[in-house]
Design brief:
- By secondary structure, the chain is mainly alpha-helical.
- Among the domains are: 154 residues, HUPs (Rossmann fold, 3-Layer(aba) Sandwich), CATH 3.40.50.620; 50 residues; 87 residues, Arc Repressor Mutant, subunit A, CATH 1.10.10.350.
- 46% of the residues lie in helices and 9% in strands.
- Helix 10 packs across helix 12.
- The chain starts with a strand and ends with a helix.
- The structure holds glutamic acid (GLU).
- Glutamic acid binds next to loops.
């Protein structure tokens, strides 16, 4: 049975686009194999929790359409799916490891540990706990019992090396001398990430762990833990982190990284998923545009690439433009109305309907619509016209005589007029464009004027002369 999961920590304001890319792989792998995709919230690092973060993350995952089969919201057979509600479970398993000699209690004060670390660093050694408490375990246990001393539980890293297979990176071998006796259970009763993640992935029967490569250094500790418990290892697949187009690590400074930022711009969830599907994977036929369904069918974890994928917002917009062009006009109209309504802007449905054929080829995301079309809804502050634009008056007079207000006729009459006045077409039409729309870039002018209507066009010209 294939069961995958993502395990976000609510330590950020939203879901990073890179996390969506790995969530997508987990989702696809579960669906392809008729298994389950689980969302578990890892909220044990209490000092780093961002208020409202969990809710926002779950909301974003929902918006993007990666529905979990089990999660804190929908529940499931292995509930609770929030680690802070599972503390007694971790304690039980940590104690079990102590009982079997695979872990031990430690009562060292933070000051001692800090001093030890400093000394080791000064000697250029790997900072590691010196096992003082391990060697004095009997006394330590007595002291904990008698004096109620605060204590942690540490993993006893065995001698030798740790070997495991990574689906993406092949065999990984680590000399255990490089590993510290990791704290598993903290003195406040919360597990560390390492204990929580291993216990939960085991109890929740996770078969494949697909996650970012930043977790690879933690994996040997996890493998040691699985073996200490006598549990079967899941398959590990560590995927490369996204990069900016200049190859630097994707970070807030260069490009927005929060998923809802892109959705709020009017990037379609399907387009974002499609683009992210190409991060570290390619369609076997080299296709760039494909549905989630097709991705699920074609995706295989053995095809995940090791090269660092580039996340380019410009390419993402391009991809979204492809989706816009495939959207039926009536649906696009509703999407635009809804998009702006959510931003508290009510647009006239009739105008939106008429303008869609003019802009569909030009917009790449829903938020491109209004900057291009604002002038249909209201006169827009005009750029200043050229000094010799006195012929606006003639334009006004000419247009006034048109009885059949159609783009083609408007165009013909203006061409004639430009010729008669001896003005270059490009200059003439730019002047009229600015006069009507206040902008240098608009949808096709004649069609725009037809939509605006004769009366409104004359009014706008009249106000200039
Ligand atoms: N809680 C970790 C995170 O914030 C999960 C890492 C993992 O997938 O094991 O991403």
């Amino acid at each position: 049975m294939v069961r995958t999961r993502i395990a976000p920590s609510p330590t950020g304001a939203d879901v990073h686009v890179g996390s969506i890319a790995t969530a997508l792989m987990n989702f696809a792998w579960a669906k392809k194999n008729h298994g389950q995709f689980v969302i578990r919230i890892e909220d044990t690092d209490r000092t780093r929790i961002v208020p409202g973060g969990e809710e926002k993350m779950l909301d974003t995952l929902n918006r993007i359409g990666l529905q979990a089969d089990e999660s804190p919201k929908v529940g499931g057979p292995y509930a609770p799916y929030r680690q802070s509600e599972r503390l007694s479970i971790y304690k039980k398993y940590a104690e079990e490891l102590v009982a079997s000699g695979k872990a031990y209690y430690c009562i060292c004060a933070p000051e001692r540990l800090a001093k030890m670390r400093q000394d080791q660093q000064a000697k250029k050694q790997i900072p590691k706990y010196d096992r003082l408490c391990f060697h004095d375990q009997k006394n330590v246990i007595k002291k904990i019992r008698n004096d109620q001393l605060p204590h942690v539980i540490r993993l006893l890293i065995p001698d030798g090396e740790t070997k495991f297979q990574d689906v993406v990176r092949g065999e990984i071998v680590i000399n255990n001398e490089n590993l510290d006796d990791q704290v598993l259970l903290k003195s406040d009763g919360f597990p560390t990430y390492h204990l929580g993640v291993v216990v939960d992935d085991h109890l929740m029967k996770i078969s494949h762990i697909i996650r970012g490569e930043e977790w690879l250094p933690s994996t040997p500790k996890h493998v040691i833990l699985y073996r200490a418990f006598g549990w079967e290892l899941p398959a590990f697949a560590h995927v490369s982190l996204l990069r900016n187009p200049d190859r630097s690590k994707l970070s807030k400074r260069k490009n927005p990284v929060w998923t809802s930022w892109y959705l709020d711009l009017g990037i379609y969830p399907e387009a974002l998923l499609n683009y992210l599907a190409l991060m570290g994977w390619s369609h076997p036929e080299g296709k760039e545009k494909f549905s989630l369904e097709e991705y699920v069918e074609k995706f295989d974890i053995k095809d995940i690439q090791t090269s660092a994928p580039v996340f380019d917002p410009v390419k993402l917009e391009w991809m979204n433009g492809l989706y816009i062009r495939e959207t039926k006009n009536s649906i696009l109209k509703d999407q635009i109305l809804e998009f702006y309504k959510a931003k508290k802007v009510d647009l006239d449905e009739k105008i939106v309907e008429k303008t869609i054929p003019l802009v569909k080829e030009r917009i790449k995301k829903l938020s491109d619509y209004l900057p291009l079309c604002e002038f249909f809804f209201q006169p827009v502050q005009r750029l200043s016209l050229e000094k010799d634009s006195l012929y606006i008056k003639s334009v006004y007079e000419e247009l006034k005589t048109i009885t059949d207000w159609k783009a083609e006729i408007i165009g013909e009459r203006m061409l004639e007029l430009a010729k008669k006045l001896g003005i270059k077409n490009s200059e003439f039409f730019m002047t009229v464009r600015i006069a009507i729309s206040g902008k240098k870039i608009t949808p096709p002018l004649n069609e725009s004027m037809e939509i605006l209507g004769k009366e409104e066009c004359l009014k706008r010209l009249d106000s200039l002369v």
